[in-house]
Specification:
single chain, 340 residues, alpha/beta, Nucleotidyltransferase, domain 5, five-stranded mixed beta sheet, 10 helices
Length: 340
């Protein structure tokens, strides 16, 4: 039974197949630190709140972290920053390990195939993704999985463009990064990331309006829409401004990175956008409007948004893992029987 895993800055999600259904498990990729007491730890355990204790500190992890941060007036902390493990967070590795283990669970059999998302190196930053990728792979393999990384943009192609022979431009707007992949018949022609995403939008909005970042994030996730009818002086107005700036920035980078020599003449491809940052209503239309004005050396047959933006990368990783698993099965069946 293969699995897919989206290791995102804001959320970690797994995908597995059960019959005709794809089942997803999700946890927020964050934690909050609270003072330890025996009573508090008993209550957390009875309530099935994901937590760990170290010395005199209790760390509430995952979906409950934001709620506890608001209750205790604390800021949440995150194991990842800008799409990779945070070098500034001393607890990054044990926290991401705990969250990931909760999301994927134990393998059903030793060596179960699992593909996990990994960002491309950003073109606008000195960040390198190798350490992040190797670390995630290591503790997944320690858990018993046969783990392989898959480029996040390519996972979008596998998830959303099967009907187009896995040909098109897939863009994953995540919290820490935005990943871009141009594929031609499942062969990546171009893949890169930029070190801007939903976190950048939240941070710029918080700075402009004097609002705590966690509050901005909550507003953005609570039915925010990109309609540009809200008061410019408020948080939603500022979110709209920085969303528009993010889209222009990503589109400019796409236009600059496409190598005309690598693109077939007359290429006409679909574009699909996904990722949690693309969730607000109005995002698809805003992106389409801005893309129309860009000078890109191939034609766009259409722009669409994934029907479930949060789950797209995990689903694409699952498609890749199941494909590998099926190929290995066919090879075993085709192999000659050993001589008796």
């Amino acid at each position: 039974m293969a699995k897919g895993l989206d290791v995102g800055t804001m959320n970690v999600l797994s995908a597995r197949q059960e019959g005709t259904d794809t089942v997803f498990v999700q946890q927020r990729n964050s934690f909050v630190e609270i003072d330890h007491s025996d009573m508090a730890e008993q209550m957390l355990s009875r309530s099935d709140v994901l937590h760990i204790r170290k010395d005199d500190t209790v760390y509430v992890v995952g979906d409950d972290a934001l709620e506890f941060a608001n209750i205790f007036n604390r800021e949440t902390r995150r194991p990842m920053q800008q799409g990779i493990l945070s070098s500034d967070e001393r607890s990054a590795i044990p926290m991401i390990k705990l969250i990931t283990e909760q999301v994927v669970g134990e393998p059903e059999s030793p060596g179960e195939r699992l593909y996990f998302s990994s960002p491309a190196d950003p073109i606008d930053s000195d960040l390198n993704t190798l350490y992040h990728q190797k670390t995630i792979r290591s503790f997944l393999e320690d858990t018993g999985y046969d783990a392989e990384p898959i480029n996040e943009g390519m996972a979008v192609i596998y998830s959303e463009l099967a009907d187009d022979n896995f040909t098109g431009l897939g863009i994953s707007f995540g919290a820490g990064m935005t990943n871009v992949c141009l594929s031609y018949y499942a062969v990546p022609v171009m893949k890169f990331s930029v070190a801007r995403g939903g976190d950048w939008v939240d941070e710029q909005t918080a700075q402009a309006t004097g609002t705590p970042v966690d509050k901005v994030t909550s507003i953005k996730e609570d039915d925010f829409q990109l309609d540009f009818t809200t008061d410019v002086g408020g948080v939603e107005g500022a979110l709209s401004i920085y969303y528009e700036n993010l889209l222009d920035y990503v589109i400019d980078k796409i236009a600059a990175e496409v190598n005309e020599e690598d693109v077939e003449e007359g290429l006409d491809v679909p574009v699909v956008v996904t990722g949690g940052t693309s969730s607000p209503r109005g995002f698809e239309k805003l992106f389409r409007d801005h893309l129309e004005d860009a000078e890109i050396p191939f034609s766009i047959s259409g722009v669409s948004q994934a029907s479930e933006p949060m789950y797209s990368v995990a689903r694409g990783a699952l498609v890749a893992a199941r494909s590998d698993e099926e190929e290995e099965r066919q090879q075993r069946e085709a192999a000659p029987e050993p001589d008796e």
